[in-house]
Amino acid sequence: MRHGPTDTGQPAKARIYLVTNELIDAPREAGLARDYLVRAPSKAQAIAYVVRKHIRADLASQDDLVSKIGLGIQIEDATLPSTTDNAAQAS
């Protein structure tokens, strides 16, 4: 594995991404950071790194489905491309 000029132990192809949590209005709201500097090989991995700190995903049970749909939460289909994903890829 090749390393960069500073030999940090990270692959040379890793870049540092600025990942911004747009759900937080003010810096340090509720003890959460708004901006993160993340060394990662891709934009998707940088975002995933930050998201894993704050978001959990579990398989929904039948009770979860009944309860959440009853509250008006709709099932979203991540298998379909969204306009947000297309806009993010264009930038």
Describe the structure.
The protein has 91 residues and is of the alpha+beta class. It has one domain (15-80). Helices cover 30% and strands 13% of the residues. The protein contains three helices and two strands; from the N terminus they run ββααα. The protein has helices at 43-52, 62-70, 83-90; strands spanning 15-20, 35-40. It has a two-stranded antiparallel ribbon with strand order 1-2. The longest helix is centred in the middle third of the chain and has 10 residues, at 43-52. The protein starts with 14 loop residues before the first strand and ends with a helix. The mean pLDDT is 80.
Record the SSE blueprint:
Layout: E1 15-20, E2 35-40, H1 43-52, H2 62-70, H3 83-90
Antiparallel strand pairs: 1-2
Briefly summarize what is shown.
By secondary structure, this protein is of the alpha+beta class. Helices cover 30% and strands 13% of the residues.
Task: Write out key terms for the chains shown.
alpha+beta; 3 helices; elongated
Strand content: 5-15%
Order of helices and strands: EEHHH
Gross morphology is elongated
Which strand order spans the largest sheet, edge to edge or round the barrel? 1-2
Number of helical segments? 3
Query: How is the quaternary structure best described?
Result: single chain
Distance, first to last CA: 30 Å
Question: How many structural domains in the coordinates?
Answer: 1
Amount of helix = 25-40%
Q: Low-confidence spans: pLDDT under 50, at least 5 residues? A: none
Mean pLDDT comes to 80
Which structural class do the helices and strands define?
alpha+beta
Give me the Rg, rounded.
18 Å
Biggest pleated-sheet summary: 2 strands, antiparallel
Number of strands: 2
